[in-house]
Amino acid sequence: MKLNLNLILLFAMVALIGSGCGRQDSLEVDGDVENIASVYKRAIKVNPNNDVAHNGLGIHYGERGMLNEAADEFKKAIEINPNNPQYYDNLGVVYGNMGKIDMAIEQHKQALKLNPTEVNAYYNLGICYKDIGDIDKAMEAWEKAREMAPENYLYSYNLGVCFFEKEDYQKAEQCFREVMALNPDAEILRISKKHLEQIEMLKKIE
How far apart are CA 107 and CA 163, in angstroms? Predict the structure, then answer.
């Protein structure tokens, strides 16, 4: 017996990382979203080669579903500063949301080439591989992410889902219990509990 589980795919909120954009955080808290864009646009007007501002504006666009505009800003940031792995990772996130998975994988790999410890790039690379049905490569990427940031419950959660799909219920249970121990948000906690209940049910059937 095999039950279908939904994988939590978190792109923008987890993966679109700013580089030195402290202003963005304070504006987001205030909810002044229009002012965020104007701050970045003014910075770019003053200095068109401000890669941080282009990246920040790309994040702003990406989180609002303006994917073409976001991609353009990340490309500009990369053109100005091709050595920042976060820009490639962010562009990969946008490509992933566009359904351009091969292009997304290429960007995440470039981010990891520049910085092999870019944990978000491993996470997003795993998302891409899962999207194209390559569960083994997805799990490999998430295992690396978990090794580098074991406190992030999303990695254990996604691994748990994959183990469940592979019908390795013992390892799936271990992953979901790791999630429970990491104090996840309420929704992940609820889903993880449900998964554990399903595993217990399968144990009784077997």
Answer: 27
